[in-house]
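Bumping my old thread because nobody answered last time. Still need a sequence for this structure:
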C-alpha cells in the first residue's frame, strides 16, 4: 500500500492500518521479525520524508492527531503491532484512545463539543465532516441566501443524463425535481399554492412561485402601466411663474416681439393648402365610424377565407396528385326523353308534386315520355334559370330578404288635395293685345281695377283689368324700351312710375281718375320744386361734382301725355320699388359705372336722392322694402343682404345657393322671402330659420324671370322662359309653431316662346285669386 504523507494538505488525515492476517499468524514470533524488517527498511525512509516535509506541515491548515511528530511515529508502530481491534468507550475521547490503545471506532461527538463529526472512509481511516453553518442572530450573516444552484452559466441540458441538475454551495448534488405523471398526480392531490405560475425556475428546475407583489408588477408591465406604486401620470400643473404670489414683476427679456409671431406662416399655409387639395380630390377621406354591418363583414372575411382552387384550371393528365373540379353527375333514366315505364309518375304522384312548394320538391321536373327526340318541347324555365344564374354571379352571395309590404304613397308627405285649396287661377280669362314686341313689365293699381304694361315699343298702356279695354296710352320713347312700371301703393292720389332709358317718368292717369285726384297728384309731384335746393358736393379742385340724379319738369311732348315729373339718372334702372307709404321709392341700376351710385333711395315730396351704399360687394340685381319694418332687402348675383335703415347697418345675409338671382318677393307677413334665379331654381327662405333656403323647388326647364306673393291669399306664382306660369299654395302660420306648407296647384300655359324668352313678368290682383302675366310674344293674359 502506498504510504500517505503526513504533510499533505487534506482536512482529513488518513492513518494506514496493518494488513489483515489470520489469528495463528498474529500469535507466533514470525510477525515480529517481519515487523523488524519493515521497520528497518521502509520505516526509515518514511520518517526521513516526514522530517523533510516537517516545515510544510506547520504551515498547513490540517488538524494533526498530536502536537509532536514523535507521537505520530509511535502511533504508527502501535497500529502495526496491534493484533485485534478494541471497542472504544463512548465516554472516552477518541483522540486519547487512539494514542493509547492504537485502535479506533467511529463515533459522533456531541453537538456541543465541536462543529464536526468523525466517520470512517473507504480505507477505514477517520474522516472529519464539518457541519453546515446555520446562521442565527448571533452571527453577522443574518440574511443567508437560500440554497441555489452554483453551476453558473452552464446550461441545464448538460445534466440531462444525470439524476441531479447541479450542486449547492456545500458541494451537494441538487436532485432533479419530479416531472411528468408524478408531478401531475402531485398537483391533482394538493391545492394550487399561492403564487403558482406553472413555470420552471431555470436555475433549480423547480416550479417558479411568485409573490403577490411580483405578480402585480408583471400585470402592470403587461398593461404598459407604471409598475411602481404612488406614481401619478397626470399630475396637477405647478404654476411656477403664474401662481398666486409668484407673478413675475419683470419680464425675462425686454426684446420686442418678433414680426413672425404676428404674420401667418407661409410654410403652414402651403401644407394646409395641400391637405385641402387632397380632400377636394378625394385622396384624403374623413374618418367614418364603422357600422355593425362593416364590423360583421370584416369578421366574416377573417374567419372564413374562401379560395377558388379551380379558378385557373387547365387540362392535365390523370395523376394521383391531380384533383379536377367536381362535375355534375350524368343524367339518369328519369331525365331521358323516353324513360322506362317504372320511372313515369302516375296521376296521384303528379298531383302531389304540383301541390308541393318549389323548395320542398326533391327534383325540379317530372319524367315525361316522348316517342321521338324531335317531339321534346323546349325547357320552359330556361330563360328564368339563366337570368337567376346571372344574378347569382353579379350579386353573389345572394341573401333572401323579406320584402317590406309598404305602400309607396304612405312614404310621401300628406299634402292637401288641390281641389280643397280653391280658389286659385286655373284658366285664361282676358287677353290684352296691343303691344308691338315683348311686354317687359306689368303692374296692377291698388284698387285692382286697372292694369299698366310697358314693352319694347316704348309705350306705357293702361288697361281696364276686367274687360281688357285700353284706357290710356303714353309714348315715352321710340327707340328705348320701357323696363319698369310701378303704381304708387297709396290709393289716392294715383301715380304711375315708368322707367325708360335713364329716366323715371311719373304719370297721372287721366281717363281712369277724377279731376280732383289728378290735381292732388300734380300737386304732390311738383311740391318738391319749392323745397330748398340741395348743395352740390365739390371735388378736391373746388369744382362742383355732377349730381348722380336730377329732378325736372317733363319736356312738352311728355307733359301733353299727363307726365308731371321726370327723374334723370346716370344709368338705366332695372328695378323700381315703392315704400309702403308711397313717399319713398328705390331704384337699382346694375349697369352703373360706380357701385356707390347703383342703388338710390328717392324722396318724392322733397325731390331728393341719397345713395346709402358706398361700398357694395357684388353686382346689384333687385331690391325691395319690408312691408312693416324699416328694413331694406338688396339682392346681388348670389346673395341677399338685409339692412336696417334706421340703424344704418347690415342685419343679416342670406345664402340662397343660386348662381344668378333674378327677382325677389316678400310675403305680406314679412318673415318669408321668395327668390327666383336664372338657373331654374325657386327658393323659399324662412327668415326665422337658417340663412340657407327652407325649400328649393325645381319645376321649370328654363330660367325663372319673376316671382310674386299674393297680397292677401296663401298663393304665390313664378314665371319662366319655358312659357309657363306655375301656381303654388303657400301656407304660412304666423305663430311660428308650424313650418310653411307648399303645394303645387296648377301650371298655366299659353304664352309662346320667342327668342328663347317666355313669360317675363307676373303680378297678382290685390284681393282676388287672379294673376296677370306678360310674355315675350307681345300678349298680356289674365288667369282666373
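Sorry it took so long. Here it is:
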Amino acid at each position: 500500500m502506498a504510504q500517505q504523507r503526513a504533510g499533505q494538505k487534506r482536512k482529513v488525515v488518513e492513518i494506514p492500518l496493518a494488513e489483515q492476517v489470520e489469528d495463528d499468524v498474529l500469535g507466533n514470533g514470525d510477525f515480529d521479525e517481519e515487523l523488524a524488517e519493515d521497520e528497518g527498511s521502509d520505516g526509515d525512509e518514511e520518517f526521513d520524508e516526514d522530517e523533510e516535509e516537517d516545515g510544510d506541515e506547520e504551515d498547513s491548515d490540517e488538524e494533526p492527531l498530536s502536537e509532536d511528530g514523535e507521537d505520530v511515529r509511535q502511533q504508527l508502530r502501535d497500529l502495526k503491532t496491534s493484533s485485534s481491534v478494541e471497542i472504544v468507550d463512548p465516554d472516552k475521547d477518541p483522540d486519547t484512545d487512539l494514542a493509547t490503545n492504537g485502535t479506533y471506532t467511529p463515533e459522533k461527538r456531541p453537538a456541543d463539543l465541536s462543529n464536526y463529526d468523525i466517520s470512517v472512509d473507504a480505507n477505514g481511516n477517520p474522516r472529519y465532516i464539518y457541519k453546515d453553518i446555520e446562521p442565527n442572530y448571533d452571527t453577522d450573516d443574518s440574511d443567508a441566501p437560500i440554497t441555489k444552484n452554483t453551476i453558473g452559466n452552464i446550461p441545464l441540458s448538460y445534466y440531462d443524463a444525470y439524476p441531479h441538475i447541479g450542486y449547492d454551495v456545500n458541494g451537494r448534488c441538487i436532485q432533479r425535481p419530479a416531472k411528468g405523471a408524478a408531478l401531475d398526480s402531485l398537483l391533482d392531490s394538493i391545492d394550487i399554492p399561492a403564487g403558482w405560475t406553472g413555470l420552471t425556475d431555470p436555475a433549480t428546475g423547480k416550479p417558479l412561485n411568485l409573490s403577490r407583489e411580483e405578480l402585480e408588477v408583471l400585470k402592470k408591465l403587461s398593461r404598459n402601466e407604471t409598475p411602481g406604486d404612488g406614481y401619478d401620470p397626470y399630475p396637477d400643473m405647478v404654476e411656477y411663474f403664474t401662481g398666486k404670489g409668484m407673478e413675475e414683476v419683470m419680464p425675462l427679456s425686454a426684446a420686442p416681439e418678433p414680426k413672425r409671431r404676428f404674420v401667418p406662416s407661409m410654410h403652414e399655409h402651403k401644407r394646409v393648402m395641400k391637405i385641402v387639395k387632397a380632400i377636394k380630390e378625394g385622396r384624403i377621406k374623413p374618418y367614418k365610424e364603422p357600422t355593425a354591418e362593416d364590423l360583421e363583414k370584416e369578421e366574416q372575411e377573417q374567419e372564413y377565407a374562401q379560395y377558388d382552387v379551380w379558378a385557373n384550371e387547365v387540362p392535365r393528365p390523370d395523376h394521383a396528385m391531380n384533383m379536377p373540379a367536381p362535375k355534375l353527375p350524368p343524367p339518369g333514366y328519369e331525365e331521358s326523353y323516353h324513360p322506362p315505364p317504372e320511372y313515369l309518375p302516375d296521376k296521384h304522384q303528379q298531383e302531389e308534386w304540383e301541390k308541393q312548394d318549389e323548395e320542398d320538391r326533391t327534383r325540379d321536373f317530372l319524367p315525361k315520355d316522348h316517342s321521338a327526340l324531335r317531339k321534346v318541347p323546349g325547357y320552359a324555365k330556361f330563360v328564368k334559370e339563366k337570368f337567376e344564374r346571372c344574378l347569382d354571379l353579379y350579386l353573389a352571395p345572394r341573401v333572401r330578404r323579406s320584402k317590406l309590404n309598404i305602400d309607396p304613397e304612405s312614404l310621401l308627405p300628406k299634402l292637401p288635395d288641390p281641389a280643397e285649396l280653391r280658389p286659385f287661377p286655373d284658366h285664361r280669362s282676358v287677353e290684352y293685345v296691343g303691344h308691338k314686341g315683348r311686354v317687359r313689365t306689368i303692374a296692377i293699381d291698388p284698387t285692382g281695377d286697372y292694369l299698366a304694361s310697358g314693352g319694347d315699343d316704348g309705350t306705357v298702356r293702361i288697361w281696364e283689368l276686367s274687360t281688357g279695354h285700353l284706357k290710356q296710352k303714353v309714348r315715352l320713347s321710340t327707340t328705348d324700351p320701357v323696363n319698369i312700371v310701378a303704381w304708387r301703393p297709396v290709393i289716392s292720389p294715383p301715380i304711375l312710375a315708368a322707367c325708360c332709358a335713364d329716366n323715371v317718368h311719373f304719370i297721372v292717369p287721366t281717363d281712369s281718375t277724377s279731376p280732383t285726384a289728378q290735381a292732388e297728384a300734380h300737386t304732390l309731384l311738383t311740391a318738391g320744386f319749392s323745397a330748398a335746393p340741395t348743395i352740390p358736393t365739390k371735388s378736391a379742385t373746388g369744382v362742383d361734382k355732377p349730381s348722380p340724379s336730377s329732378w325736372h319738369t317733363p319736356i312738352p311732348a311728355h307733359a301733353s301725355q299727363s307726365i308731371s315729373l321726370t327723374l334723370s339718372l346716370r344709368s338705366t334702372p332695372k328695378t323700381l320699388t315703392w315704400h309702403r307709404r308711397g313717399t319713398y321709392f328705390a331704384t337699382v341700376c346694375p349697369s352703373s359705372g360706380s357701385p356707390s351710385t347703383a342703388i338710390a333711395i328717392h324722396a318724392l315730396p322733397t325731390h331728393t336722392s341719397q345713395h346709402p351704399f358706398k361700398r357694395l360687394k357684388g353686382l346689384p340685381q333687385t331690391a325691395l322694402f319690408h312691408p312693416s319694418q324699416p328694413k331694406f332687402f338688396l339682392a346681388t348675383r348670389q346673395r341677399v343682404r338685409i339692412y336696417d335703415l334706421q340703424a344704418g347697418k347690415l342685419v343679416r345675409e342670406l345664402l340662397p345657393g343660386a348662381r344668378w338671382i333674378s327677382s325677389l318677393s316678400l310675403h305680406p307677413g314679412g318673415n318669408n322671402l321668395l327668390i327666383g334665379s336664372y338657373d331654374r331654381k325657386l327658393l323659399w327662405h324662412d327668415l326665422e330659420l337658417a340663412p340657407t333656403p327652407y325649400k328649393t323647388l325645381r319645376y321649370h326647364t328654363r330660367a325663372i324671370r319673376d316671382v310674386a306673393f299674393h297680397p292677401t291669399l296663401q298663393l304665390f306664382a313664378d314665371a319662366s322662359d319655358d312659357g309657363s306660369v306655375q301656381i303654388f299654395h303657400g301656407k304660412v302660420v304666423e305663430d311660428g309653431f308650424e313650418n310653411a306648407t307648399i303645394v303645387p296647384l296648377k301650371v298655366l300655359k299659353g304664352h309662346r316662346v320667342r327668342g328663347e324668352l317666355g313669360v317675363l313678368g307676373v303680378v297678382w290682383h290685390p284681393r282676388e285669386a287672379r294673376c296677370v302675366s306678360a310674355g315675350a310674344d307681345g300678349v298680356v293674359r289674365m288667369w282666373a
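The first strand starts at residue 116 and ends at 120. Let me know if any region looks off to you.
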